[in-house]
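Appendix B: complex inputs.
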Amino acid sequence: MSTSTPESGREPGKLRPGETFPDLELPDHAGNRRRLSDLVGGDPLVLTFYRGWWCPKEQSFFRRLVEFQDEVEVAYTRMVSVSVDQPEVEAAFRAGLGARWTFLSDAERRYVEILDLLETTDTIHYPYVPTAFTLYPDLTICTAWNGYWAWGRPSLEELRRDLRTITKAIRPDWEVPKQ
Amino acid sequence: MSWCWLVRTDAVPEGAVAAAELSSGGHLSALAADRPAPSGERKIDARALDSEGEPALASLVLPPDGLTITFDDLAVSGAMGAALAAPWPHVLSTLVVDSSRFAGALTAVRNGDRGRLEADPFARIFPAEIVEIGPGLLGRTPAPTGPVIQRYGGGNPWPWDRF
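Resulting structure:
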């Protein structure tokens, strides 16, 4: 299993590549209770924490993710995004973007301290520090990106590289099966 | 088991694992996957079924037996993407024949949201009938994580999401 730290900044929070990500249990954008381990299924996962719908940097980053979903939808890979927005706010943000993946709402901020991802410099919203992870299906962290500054977020090419690494590791038929 | 056979008949077939009456007449029934293929040979996600399930209002896209298009047709891909973007219903399963053909879809709600059914993206592929389905057939299909629209295994209906 390959794990790495990008050059884009300090590793966010307490979570390090190679460690197991906590199995979050939160309501999704429709209000259904969801567990991360169930959402990931047996696939690679792109997990993003974002400040909220109001942040221009998030709007820019998520437009790139929406572009990316056209590749992801045919590649047995899942995406989950988490914020402190209420489910109905997330549902509106998701619909406005045209996103087709699951958003989780931590409006009660259950996990911000556990994950050490509270953005303490925003005393209005107390949001998550923008952070992106690629995870193996067992929730092992492949890479973590600190997106406090916009340039710290992963490019789509960095995500593609990670998803290839993870997929190659978990799919026994990565090499074309012989007759 | 990831799927069952789904069949529409006048009477409930012997050995059905779940069945319900349709408000427009006849019955919709599920048969275990190890049974011989019934007429139409349509498969449905097993999670969409529950022999103790409550009634629901459904959009039933059920073309005549033998009328299918390839599951990889862009019309099907587009409909799955649209279904992921829309509010997820209580029940949704595509109906598939063998490993490669799309033969309809079943979308159902229990909150009376007829508008969701009238906007059923699968109704753009084949005509849909909005119908009340009685108790004893429908379960609940959890919303898939997204944005995956590929099937997990050639013969499985979407949104079944495990290999």
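Strands of chain B lie at 3-9, 18-21, 27-31, 42-45, 56-61, 69-70, 91-97, 101-109, 128-133.
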